[in-house]
Design a protein that fits this description.
This protein is an alpha/beta fold. It has one domain: Aldolase class I (TIM Barrel, Alpha-Beta Barrel), CATH 3.20.20. The strands form 2 sheets. It has an 8-stranded mixed β-sheet, sandwiched between helices. A two-stranded parallel ribbon has the order 3-4. Strand 5, helix 5 and strand 6 form a beta-alpha-beta unit.
């Protein structure tokens, strides 16, 4: 595989600073994981230094092995029943006004971990009643009951990423199904249309612009309001290869295309990830 040199707009300084250390220390104290660290997110320095982090619950081992993701696949340990309390305490200590909770996929758990998500939301609200909670959930194998469980805990935003175009699912997301993910988002809106739905896409994995436009239309038909679009960066040479880098101007055009398709709020830029500036997106939706 030919290694493509990162363009200037994708280069970020190494993470450091007192706020970064403080967030890191709180996470270590409570034995918590973040997707920032486990997925090698390029924005970890910016987010930690602003006092935020995207909490990764239910362990750091995934029952699936997606070819774009840096999180390890394998057999996870049992769920930590005390984890929701630990996350809530960390949120309180960090003084967060907006928290994002995501997870590995847990196909080994009957409800996919839906109740664990719900309990985490409830615990955060107990200790930090003014804190909004966005959840980024796996596909729960399409279980509507699992979606209900999470939504009944009343998250601020319900997020599930479609990740890529349907043609690339077999290579990028084995075990997942594009239509199932769309149906999950559609059902979430039907069940609780007062809770905004959100999704995310990565580009540069081999998709075409026309394919992306079709996904934008599909998401709008499913009543998804919020969308993030960012550059795919392979974690290693063993992962799905990079097809190309999109320029900042191309990301701007993708945003316009998505808005034209009917999405309400779109954040599109090379370094954008699912929870990047999540609070700002949700605030703009309310305006």
């Amino acid at each position: 595989m030919t290694v493509k040199r990162k363009p200037s707009w994708l280069r970020v300084p190494p993470p450091w600073g007192s706020d970064f250390k403080q967030v890191n220390n709180i996470l270590k104290e409570y034995g918590l994981e973040t997707v920032c660290k486990n997925a090698n997110c390029p924005n970890i320095g910016e987010c930690y230094n602003s006092g935020t982090a995207t909490f990764l619950i239910m362990g750091n081992v995934c029952t699936r092995n997606c070819r774009f993701c840096n999180i390890q696949g394998g057999k996870p340990e049992k769920l930590d029943v005390n984890e929701p309390k630990k996350v809530a305490k960390a949120v309180q200590l960090m003084g967060l006004k907006y928290s994002v909770i995501t997870s590995v996929t847990r196909d080994d758990v009957p409800d996919g971990g839906a109740e664990h998500f719900a309990e985490t939301i409830r615990r955060i609200r107990e200790l930090s009643p003014e804190c909004d909670v966005e959840v980024l959930v796996p596909d729960f194998r399409g279980s509507e009951d699992s979606v209900k469980t999470v939504l009944d805990a009343e998250p601020t935003v319900f997020n599930h990423n479609v990740e890529t175009v349907p043609r690339l699912y077999k290579n990028l997301r084995p075990g997942a199904d594009y239509r199932q993910s769309l149906d999950l988002l559609k059902f979430a809106h039907l069940y609780r249309n007062d809770i905004p739905t959100k999704s995310g896409l990565m580009v540069g994995a081999g998709e075409t612009i026309d394919e992306l436009k079709e996904v934008f239309t599909d998401l709008a038909i499913a009543n998804v309001q919020l969308l993030t679009i960012g550059q795919y960066l392979p974690p290693s040479r063993e992962h799905h290869p990079l097809d190309r880098f999109y320029s900042p101007d191309e990301f701007d055009q993708l945003k316009l295309d998505a808005l034209s398709a009917g999405l309400k709020e779109v954040t599109s830029a090379p370094l954008v990830r699912s929870s990047y500036h999540a609070q700002e997106m949700e605030n703009r939706l309310k305006e």
